[in-house]
Amino acid sequence: MSGIKCFERNGEKYLELISEDQIRQRVKELATKLSDDYKDKCPILIGVLNGAFIFLADLIREMDIDCEVDFVKISSYGGGRVSSGQIKSKKKFDSDVDGRHIVIVEDIADSGRSIKFLEQMFAGTKPASLRFVSLLLKEDNAVVDFKLDYVGFNIPTKFVVGYGLDYDQKDRNLRSIYVLEE
Ligand code: IMP
Ligand code: MG
Question: Which whole number is the average pLDDT over 55-68?
Fold first, then answer.
């Protein structure tokens, strides 16, 4: 689906919001920044499954420092286009992060509840540092107080899919990011 600006599928209308080229460029910039900030620190980048798997894969390949990768799995949507507001951990995270530099890698921050949940999840651990990167931020939609250290793109409050982001588990394989029109 490369280079397609607008298409329809299964009665849904997809409008390109961020192109493959724009994503690649911005991911490179974020990777350069992380490589500078974490030089000689061998950070552990922890991807938030499922949505962040493509972003994380591209991000680390643009980084030119030693780093490690791990994953947490949480869910909040349960299938629809509106978050249930109930965040659940879907996979036990038992890696030792004490004394390590941790970077949590998210696909998108919407209400902020997932970021908050992750902050609390790591509150009982003793990392050397803990930062959050999200490719996307719906800047007008926060309902809790949260902080991101690195953001790829600020986007409007619309439901988006592609580049790892899903609607009902599908559309993650689209190369660009699309607004799924109501
Ligand atoms: P939050 O907890 O409301 O900030 O939502 C964060 C999580 O909900 C993200 O990690 C995504 O998995 C999912 N999400 C939020 N907005 C969207 C969207 O527009 N498309 C697909 N998933 C989304
Ligand atoms: Mg996510």
Answer: 98
